[in-house]
Amino acid sequence: MMEYFLTEEQKMIKDLARRVADERIAPAAAELDEKEEFPWELMKVCAESDLFGVYMPEEYGGLGGGVLEQALVVEELSRACAGVAVSYAASGLGAFPILLFGTDAQKKKYLPDIASGKKLAAFGLTEANAGSDAGGIETTAVLDGDSYVLNGTKQWITNGGEAEVYTVIAMTDKKKGSRGATAFIVEKGTPGFTFGKKEKKLGIRASATRELVFHNCRVPKENVLAREGMGFIVAMKTLDRTRPGIGAQAVGIAQGALDAAAKYARQRHQFGQPISSFQAIQHMLADMAIQVEAARAFVYAVAKSIDSGVKEFSKESAMVKVFASDVAVKVTLDAIQVFGGYGYMRDYPVEKMLRDAKITQIYEGTNQIQRNVIALELIKEYAGRK
């Protein structure tokens, strides 16, 4: 890997995450995928290793890092198992709205337990008829005295049913479209808040994906994030910061696939020599390595830029998510080709990596929607140069 001039603390975080991935996650990955079990034991390992707190301020029990530190962890965990990695990362997705928009009281109440890994978090935005179109949200929140009453269903929520803390977007004024959305903190166990069945998925099978169901669920007014009508902004600002994490996940998956393919190419013999001696295989491995390193450099650069305090980064966040996820699908597909028939079998890890890679092109905004975001930002930039 190239020298990215990480700080000593960042190198320690990356090395620690790598050890957790190699020693604890990799040996369990195939079984967790097969059984579709939520990796609670591995979440405890991450908690004991202080990985949940890498992006949290020190005042809430974190290590004081940022988007880059979280990306370093996600990358290394994803190299071993993306299902485990997304269970870790989704807690950050649920925590960022509180971190960015929470009051002092909200932060003190929820963030220390999330930073320590004592509680997982989750983010509830997507619905059956409102994915990329956040203005189409149908879950409602009606003010009644000192509480809001939530009704509706959120779909495909990572960590759904396992997390204790949920940040949820609901409509408080449908007439205003996206400007009528409000963000809430909802705790597991709140009356009227239940979960659907655990979804069976193509990939990231170790992670839990469920519906969030709200039926006359009362949420105290003090659980509103920012203020009424700010829900869309809360969601978009959160996703701008977490999409580089999807890029990091994609890089980790791709790196794992490259590692496996290169190792296999040296071991597999045909025509009396290792297949790594064939130029066709060498060129495939070379292209895979180029793409992985380019994606990694992009992820680190965008994460560093966000942490530096730049004001606008929606375009760059979308770009890195698109580029890295497309790389992950291409590299894992090529890894299967290097393995040949064995790559198609579950006895080898690369077929799982391809299944896991696909979701990085879909969640937190499909790559097609991200391209819309990128294009619109470009058009605005060029219009301003007149």
Secondary structure elements and pairings:
Layout: H1 8-35, H2 40-48, H3 67-80, H4 82-101, H5 104-116, E1 121-124, E2 140-144, E3 147-158, E4 165-171, E5 181-187, E6 193-195, E7 209-220, E8 224-225, H6 231-267, E9 269-270, E10 273-274, H7 279-307, H8 314-339, H9 350-358, H10 367-383
Parallel strand pairs: 1-4
Antiparallel strand pairs: 2-3, 3-7, 4-5, 5-8, 6-7, 9-10
Protein described:
It contains ten helices and ten strands. It is α+β, with helices and mostly antiparallel strands. It is globular and about 80 Å long. The longest helix has 37 residues. The strands form three sheets. Strands 1-4-5-8 form a four-stranded mixed sheet. Strands 2-3-7-6 form a four-stranded antiparallel sheet, covered by helices on one side. Strands 9-10 form a two-stranded antiparallel ribbon.
CATH topology title of the largest domain: Butyryl-CoA Dehydrogenase, subunit A, domain 3
CATH first level of the largest domain: which class? Mainly Alpha
Give a quick account of the main beta sheet: strands, pairing sense, barrel closure: 4 strands, mixed
Query: Alpha-carbon distance between the termini?
Result: 42 Å
How many beta-strand segments?
10
Stretches with pLDDT under 50, minimum 5 residues: none
